[in-house]
Design brief:
EC number: 4.6.1.2
Strand order of the largest sheet: 1-2-3
Structural class: alpha+beta
Number of strands: 3
Protein name: guanylate cyclase
Oligomer: single chain
Domain Guanylate cyclase: 164-209
Coiled coil: 100-134
Organism: Ignelater luminosus
Length: 209
Amino acid sequence: ILNRTNNIFELVSVEPVLNDKPSEKSKRDVLLSDEYEVQEEKNLRLKGQMIYMESWKMIMYLGTPVMPDLNSLISSGLYINDLSMHDFSRDLMLAGTQQSVELKLALDQEQQKSKKLEDSMRKLDDEMRRTDELLYQMIPKQVADRLRTGENPIDTCEMFDSVSILFSDVVTFTEICSRITPMEVVSMLNAMYSIFDTLTERNRVYKVS
């Protein structure tokens, strides 16, 4: 040790440091593997310098606790004042804690931005779906899809040798409306045209609303 006076020595306590009374779990004679690992993490680590005291004929160890954060420091029963004031132990502890808080805050902000982006993308998908529905009501679906891919509008024009045009009407619609409530009229028309739309799509018929 005297030949390595410029080296930093790190000591680890054999027994775990317990801040409070041992729990029932620690009193068991047989410990599970994961419980043993948890206790190993509570061992106190000291890092410092070995100094030989000539008058005492002894070696004095000047060490400070090595803690990753304030939570580990408090769980070990120690405080900031227990760290050495003659080195950067306190500054490193506080700086590490501050950096951890800043990183957590930045992570929370990124998660909020990600959530807002997901909401915006979902709203965009809803608007695109509504736009598609409106577009399909104006022009045939296959023509709209071809225009969306950038095809020339002139090339989307098609010719048919013969076509059939169907005009539909609800017979005695005025009389029916006079006998039922407005909501019943809406429900009736919605049910009727939903069936009509299903039939037109099944038979590949273009409907002009």
